[in-house]
Design brief:
single chain, 229 residues, alpha+beta, 6 helices, globular
Length: 229
């Protein structure tokens, strides 16, 4: 009978043990409700913040590729695409401007908006001329004789005689290793005096320049250097 009476009596009128038990249960129930509300509110706040961050990231402008490039890379990006005439056509035009000459070097130069190829050609005796070629239209300017002494001529004549690899073959070797645009080819000698071609290749995905030193007798790659500046 006491148990039944406890079930229907208000908490304050129940025996101490029953009253304590009821209070504990009530407090636990209230805690559950508060915890549930807190979790729901916090979840919504966190979810809302994540959604806002995602929306902000989606609407924020992407960083400029140009802004991430170095000064040299920006110059290459501005200049290289403007050259409608490639290095081969430039060398051909330069050789055509100096009868009985052979190619020695060619390099793409600026400024952007007025790209040009600066080429050097030489005859068998080492007499060299420089020729500027329009990198857009491909027209060669007037050939200018270089100021050389006898030793310079003999050294250049010796390199030309020893070089059995053409600049085009050297460039093909370089681009076979690194795909890109050839922006310079130059005949030079190694420390041992053997002829080599130095070839610059610009990759248009990152605008880095890779320089290859290629043996001018067997097309072997002697050196490869990436300029990321």
């Amino acid at each position: 009978m006491n148990t039944k009476s406890d079930e229907i009596l208000p908490i304050r009128d129940r025996p101490p043990l029953a009253r304590g038990t009821a209070l504990i249960c009530a407090a636990a129930a209230a805690g559950v409700l508060l915890t549930g509300c807190g979790t729901g509110t916090g979840g919504e706040a966190e979810g809302s913040g994540a959604a806002d961050a995602a929306r902000a990231a989606a609407t924020s402008p992407a960083p400029s590729d140009t802004g991430n490039l170095t000064e040299d890379q920006r110059e290459r990006k501005a200049l290289v695409p403007q050259a409608k005439t490639g290095y081969e056509q430039a060398l051909s035009a330069a050789v055509g401007a100096v009868p009985d000459s052979e190619p020695v070097s060619v390099e793409l130069k600026g400024p952007p908006g007025s790209p040009r190829w600066e080429a050097e050609v030489a005859m068998d005796d080492g007499t060299a001329h420089t020729v500027s070629v329009d990198a857009i239209g491909g027209k060669a300017g007037r050939a200018r004789a270089k100021d050389e002494d006898g030793d310079d001529k003999r050294e250049l004549a010796d390199l030309l005689k020893k070089a059995t690899v053409t600049p085009q073959q050297a460039a093909q070797t370089a681009t076979g290793r690194t795909k890109g645009t050839v922006t310079a080819v130059e005949l030079d000698d190694t420390d041992g005096g053997a002829p080599k071609w130095s070839v610059d290749v610009v990759t248009t995905d990152d605008w880095n320049k890779t320089t290859f030193d290629i043996d001018a007798t067997n097309r072997k790659i002697l050196r490869e250097h990436v300029d990321r500046d």
